């Protein structure tokens, strides 16, 4: 019996220890607003992406502006902390950190809506710092900025309206991205993936406004030309037809690998880990084809569509059909057909009009230089009769209105007369009743006096 009690006691202690450890791992339900990045990292470090999102949501809910006067100011400072944390995740990117960034997008948007002016100030400072860092190395052989700076453009597209004609944050970001695509050298597959990421972000920016961005088209055209050795391909700066990257992409095998279904963000993470062309060529080509199809649908209404997309169609058609999967072959054939159909639309020649165009009516006053006051204008018999009838109708209408007015005045007088008579009769009867009452009161008083 003693052994059994000790065993039960030990088992109970182990269960309590296990429950305490599990409770310590769980997120608290209430939070104070973190004052610094280190304090915030103590909450979210070694947490899953879902737990990171839950922690930020609970911080926002427990310190909502409606619950305290200083909560709004504290949450504005917390926004800068979350943005800095998100960009730090991009310094050493991994797939798990990408998942965390994806889960932080929604609570970050809620924080940004508290004060748009403060949010704009935070991102304006980040943009200036990123441009300063890149400008230091711009001379000579400019390279793409690190992944954390590229991630800033993605966050701007999620938090700010990108369809405005001019925006204090989005417009400088678009100019910065265009500058990167135009000046940064593409020497490795990682540089090519960075450029494709910027092209995809810019395409998302202009998806509603359909604003034309020539840097994106030039980059996609040149990137497609790197996959073939054809001399008919078109290249734009900073690409070169004799670059080392083109020789690598056009010569190595294009068999489908494990990166086939990766998006650009995942390829950026992969390129930082595996820098070989063999592992990423297939996925890069798939992304180029996707962007080519999306851009052709986006700009199909441009009058100069044929001149803009003919080089892209030429470069894509010159890519040799290699050992691709069936899905890749169908995607490639679809893009080729789409570009060929839209670029092959014949131009309509300018022609003379078959009929003389109708002149616009000018409503200018028509003056009669021989007009005499009091004399009627001469016209046809029909016009004269119509004018007589119109004049007669107008005269009869005036007479009818006059008679109606007289009748109304007469009726009003009669009603007033009846009302006055009723009032006079009522007043006469009232006076008679008062007189009779006074006489009765007088007689009653006289009777009292006689009795005395």
Note the main sheet. Answer: none
Structural class: mainly alpha
* Envelope shape: flat
Mean pLDDT figure:
85
Beta-strand content bin: under 5%
Contiguous runs where pLDDT drops below 50 for at least 5 residues:
none
Number of helical regions: 16
Q: How would you classify the quaternary structure?
A: single chain
Amount of helix: 55-70%
Specify Rg, calculated over alpha carbons: 44 Å
Distance between the termini: 127 Å
The total of beta strands comes to: 0
- What is the chain-wise order of helices and strands? HHHHHHHHHHHHHHHH
Sum this structure up briefly.
Helices cover 67% and strands 0% of the residues. The chain has helices spanning 2-25, 37-44, 49-62, 71-89, 95-112, 116-136, 147-159, 170-183, 189-205, 214-225, 244-251, 264-273, 277-298, 305-317, 326-343, 381-451.
Structural summary, described in words:
The structure is a single chain. The chain has 452 residues and is an all-alpha fold. The chain is 67% helix and 0% strand. The chain has 16 helices and no strands. It is flat and about 140 Å long.
Question: Topology of this structure?
Answer:
Layout: H1 2-25, H2 37-44, H3 49-62, H4 71-89, H5 95-112, H6 116-136, H7 147-159, H8 170-183, H9 189-205, H10 214-225, H11 244-251, H12 264-273, H13 277-298, H14 305-317, H15 326-343, H16 381-451
Identify the notable features of this structure and list them briefly.
452 residues; mainly alpha; 16 helices
């Amino acid at each position: 019996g003693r052994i059994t009690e000790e065993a039960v006691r030990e088992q109970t202690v182990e269960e309590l220890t296990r429950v305490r450890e599990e409770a310590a791992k769980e997120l608290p339900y209430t939070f104070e607003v973190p004052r610094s990045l280190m304090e915030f990292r103590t909450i979210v470090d070694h947490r899953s992406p879902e737990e990171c999102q839950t922690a930020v949501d609970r911080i926002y809910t427990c310190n909502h502006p409606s619950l305290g006067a200083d909560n709004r100011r504290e949450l504005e400072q917390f926004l800068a902390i979350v943005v800095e944390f998100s960009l730090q995740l991009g310094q050493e990117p991994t797939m798990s950190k990408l998942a965390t960034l994806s889960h932080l997008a929604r609570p970050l948007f809620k924080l940004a809506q508290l004060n748009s002016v403060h949010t704009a100030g935070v991102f304006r400072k980040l943009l200036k710092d990123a441009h300063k860092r890149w400008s230091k190395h711009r001379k000579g052989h400019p390279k793409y900025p690190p992944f954390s700076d590229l991630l800033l453009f993605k966050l701007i597209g999620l938090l700010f309206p990108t369809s405005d004609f001019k925006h204090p944050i989005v417009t400088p970001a678009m100019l910065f991205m265009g500058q990167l695509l135009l000046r940064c050298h593409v020497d490795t597959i990682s540089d090519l993936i960075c450029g494709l990421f910027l092209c995809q972000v810019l395409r998302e920016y202009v998806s509603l406004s359909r604003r034309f961005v020539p840097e994106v088209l030039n980059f996609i055209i040149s990137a497609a030309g790197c996959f073939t050795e054809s001399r008919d391909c078109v290249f734009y700066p900073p690409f070169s037809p004799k670059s080392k990257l083109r020789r690598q992409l056009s010569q190595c095998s294009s068999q489908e690998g494990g990166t086939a279904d990766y998006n650009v963000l995942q390829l950026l993470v992969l390129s930082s880990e595996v820098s070989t062309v063999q592992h990423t060529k297939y996925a890069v080509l798939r992304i180029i084809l996707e962007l080519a199809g999306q851009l052709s649908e986006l700009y199909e209404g441009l009058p100069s569509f044929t001149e803009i997309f003919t080089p892209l169609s030429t470069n894509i058609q010159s890519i040799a059909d290699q050992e691709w999967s069936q899905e890749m072959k169908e995607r490639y054939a679809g893009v080729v057909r789409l570009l060929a159909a839209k670029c092959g639309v014949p131009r309509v020649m300018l022609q003379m009009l078959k009929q003389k165009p109708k002149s616009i009516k000018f409503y200018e006053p028509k003056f009669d230089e021989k007009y005499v006051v009091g004399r009627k204008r001469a016209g046809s018999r029909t016009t004269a009769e119509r004018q007589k009838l119109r004049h007669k109708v107008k005269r009869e209408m005036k007479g009818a209105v006059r008679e109606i007015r007289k009748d109304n005045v007469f009726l009003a007088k009669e009603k007033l007369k009846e009302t006055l008579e009723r009032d006079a009769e009522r007043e006469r009867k009232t006076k008679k009743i008062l007189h009779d009452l006074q006489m009765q009161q007088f007689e009653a008083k006289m009777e009292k006096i006689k009795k005395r």
